[in-house]
Amino acid sequence: MSSTAQAITELxxxxxxxxxxxRIGFVARHAMVTKVRGSFTRxxxxxxxxxxxxxxxxxxxxxxxxxxxxxxxDRDAHLRGNDFFAMDEFPEITFTSSGxxxxxxxxFTLTGExxxxxxxxxxxxxxxxxxxxxxxxxxxxxxxxxxxxINRRDFGVTTNFALETGGVLVxxxxxxxxxxxxxxx
Length: 185
Description:
- Helix content is 8%, strand content 54%.
- It is built from 2 helices and 11 strands.
- The longest helix is centred in the middle third of the chain and has 8 residues, at 73-80.
């Protein structure tokens, strides 16, 4: 048994996402020439891992949409408004898993329902297991890195602006990035 498999067999249990040591981020192409990166700074999640029966593993994440942070207050305010996320009406982004599949020694896909702006679509996120550690307080931690790409139009985020030189201001494809630190409950 590889050391990775041994680490994975230690994982069965219930966990919470540690927001102080996790990141839920995104990348969008801007003006067809560069990328803008951002993240959500407030979120919570619960995860159940079962290495004996992956089908019993599950996750639920709730993101406070107004916590969006791209490093630019004016852009963040615009994203919170009706042109994009209408966060007064839709203050949460949620993900509830419906299945997990192991696709490599340390690689998994997590499929579930993502709800943005009141629209729910099935998405699949690729995750790589990063290992486990006991922190100085005796907590078992497990780390995962994940990514997927969505089309923002599928979630009703359709505002865009045509550029004089051709193309649009904001890409339809949005890369989602996850750096997740779990703490066993």
